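Marked as duplicate of an earlier ticket. Keeping the data here for the record.
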Amino acid sequence: MKRTTGSKWKPDFWFFTKILVIVVMCLFIVYPFYTILTKSVFSSKVEGFTFYNFHRFFTKPYYYQTLLRSMVVCFSTVLTTTLIGVPIAYLMTRYNIPGKKVLHILIIMSLMSPPFIGAYSWIILMGRAGLLAKLFGAIGLTAPTIYGRGGIIFVFTLHLFPYIYLYTSGAMNSIDSSLEEAAENLGMNKLRRIWTVTLPVILPSILAGCIMMSGYMLVTAALSGVIRDLTPEGKAGHFQGIRMIFGVLLPMIAGPAIGAAVIRNSDSTYVELGVTKTV
């Protein structure tokens, strides 16, 4: 959209595109947040502005314990997915593994599986009457259960570790190879090189993947409801607003803010073609 001195400005295609984007953002992001925040400070049981809803939430064990358990599962899954995703990304980007392209495609395809399909697939395999339960029962053993907190963390880990893998592998592929070559020429062993050179560079990407995955996981109530099998009748929708806040705020606001802060405060530099650049 260009303007020339003395000419009358006329709206063009990109002007209307910007207006459309702003309207869509207000409709699907600003308005829902505004509705959630305003309804949280007003109640039909109390007149005017009130913190009655917050008081009710933090004084009833059912509400705050549900959120606390969700956060425990969230942080546990972040830890397990990081322990799996980062090493896989390192091996896939630094070593010639047979069938590497096929494995990469399969990892990406696992993200395309809807939560319900993934949940029922694991129930068919490891449920009370699943294939593994029947196989273990045939030899007189008890199969590990997929229900409960451990089952949720297990399924979430296998379902969501591709987020960490994709973010980390992208960062690994973008690292200037001269950094690692210089560390190797200085006599660093492989473990120290990873810890002091590679990890600080890819850390913002790992954090971004963790935050994106956490937001998605808190929103995915369907997978938890099916696997855990403990959702009381009539209570399934009570925490959807809270889950949506976490699911939108974490990826869209906290993720870029934390990533930018880590990069800004790392003071990491590298030399490329004789020019010193900031990571």
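See parent ticket for discussion. DSSP finds eleven helices and two strands in the chain.
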